[in-house]
Amino acid sequence: MIPFNKPCVTGKESVAVQQAITSGKLSGNGAFGKNSVHWLEERLDCEKALLTPSCTAALEMTAILTNVGPGDEVIMPSYTFVSTANAFALRGASIRFVDVLPGTMNIDPEAIEKAITTRTKAIVVVHYAGVSCEMDSIMSLAEDYNLFVVEDAAQGLMSTYKGRALGTIGHFGTISFHETKNYQCGEGGALLINDKNACKRAEIIQEKGTNRSQFIRGEVDKYTWRDVGSSYLLSEMNAAFLSVQLDNAEGIYEKRMKAWTWYKTGLQQLETQRFITLPEIPNDCRHNAHMFYIKVQNLAERSKLMEYLKQNNIMAVSHYVPLHTSQAGLKYGVFVGEELYTTPESEKLIRLPLYYGIEKEEVNHVVNHIQKFYQQ
Ligand SMILES: *Cc1c(COP(=O)(O)O)cnc(C)c1O
């Protein structure tokens, strides 16, 4: 059986976790946590990074940092994971879902502009499959209308847009270290803060609304409740696991990219014959091989192909059900503008098995079965 995903484990994680255990410091911001933060700040070039229990938690922090509340509107794609919207719905904001572009499944900058009202506070972009949104247009819109930009870069570690790391272009960026992502520690995430003025507040929000971080650094002699916040720290054992993955980021990247390229080469002919469509990687983007997806003609064909692959022990999966069609999406948000692509394109999309350590034979096996399916 070829599974859809296998969590990436390089083999050296258990040693680091054991070290964390014997260090006697198991809560957040221990030595491994600091190392990982340092890696993120240096490698990605951001003002400040904080490790969080998940990307979901980091998104919740951005919803607090952008001061959105009841009556405010936040614009985002409908084609995304629930956490992107949920974080802002939790603050009482109303979600304005807009369309994506079919080539990348990323938010359409023109649809954003049409959805802006006097109540708009923030734009949340999602870099789908680790391929960047059109950040120049989006940042210039944000400047024109004085809006915050949050980048949900959950899938985007090691990807860039015009040489800049994803998550470091908007005011805030969020990363996921969930086991389904390229770099993982079971559950984990990071908040990237690019706005200098927000760093101090972000630390307070992360420490349950207290200035405990300043206290630990010896900057104040006691810590007190300063703001709203929650427990948004990553445990040191997870940070230890993560630090090994970050130290091997290049090697993990290369292996995934190889597999991605095997798919791309192997399926090219079916695209030329117009049976399927392959993902578009715009020139400004370096991606991280987070995902390999294909698009077929329609929903019925997708069901048939997925079933055919399953019968051959290949686990290929669909992806997001557009949020504006979901029960909570209808309650907390509304789709704004014309929906040209979100639902129809999401119904054509199939993600193929791709993980650290997938063998060339396995990729070829998947490719051959897709070819066979279209020969029938
Ligand atoms: C995975 C993912 C999340 C959630 O990440 P967690 O770390 O599991 O909370 C949010 N947004 C997107 C786009 C994702 O792919």
Automatic annotation (TrEMBL):
Pfam families (UniProt xref): DegT_DnrJ_EryC1
Assigned keywords, A-Z: Aminotransferase, Pyridoxal phosphate, Transferase
Enzyme class, spelled out: transferase
Enzyme Commission number: 2.6.1.59
Signal peptide range: none
Protein origin, superkingdom: Bacteria
GO molecular function: dTDP-4-amino-4,6-dideoxygalactose transaminase activity
Membership in a protein family: Belongs to the DegT/DnrJ/EryC1 family.
NCBIfam families assigned to the protein according to its UniProt record, in alphabetical order: ECA_wecE (TIGR02379), PRK11706.1 (NF008687)
Protein name as it appears in the record: dTDP-4-amino-4,6-dideoxygalactose transaminase
Gene that this polypeptide is encoded by: rffA
